[in-house]
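Hi, here's the filled form for the chain we discussed.

Project: internal
Contact: R.S.
Residues: 203
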Amino acid sequence: GSPVQTDAKAGRFKYADIDGNDTIDTKDRTIIGNPNPKFTYGINLSAQFKQFDFSMMLYGSQGNDIFNYGSYFLDFVASFQNSKSRDALYNSWSPSNPNARLPIAENLSTFSTNGVTNSYFIDNGSYLRCKQIQLGYNFLPNILQKAGIDKARLYVQAANLFTITKYRGLDPELAGGATAFGIDYGGNYPPIKTYIVGINITF
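And the returned structure, exactly as it came back:
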């Protein structure tokens, strides 16, 4: 009962018959995904209690889609036969696993395997990232005066501490460009977590 589709086979990608002529062809092309977020945001938090101070900077993007080209190179390039992801190896379609999230694992390049772009590669690109978090302690003046110090503050800081996202790729924060906006080619590595311990002294 499905429309006619080139190289159709159980477990392979199945395309929507957009124009309703019971045949999958170039007339069934349609727009999928939107790289433009509904909104971006930033949150700055700060608090102080006695000699302690705390600050945190969060920012994120909401409502944008990412074309995850990395998953295409990882799981659907026929010449990369020994580089499948664990998900592709253990959660692919098979007669005994008909409700799998991924299509059948094959090393073939056809219309119905990797020859045509489809919505499988569209991921939710929304994220919330903790850019910076810091906790400080300000020493009491009467302790510092004996050492000839006016002010002293000890602090610990972490950068890029966590990212909350449903994106399957390495990092949802894409640099992009005019011709590749919202496309993740797999070379966008997540920012490194860093931890700093420091002291500010005023004489």
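Let me know if anything looks off before we file it.
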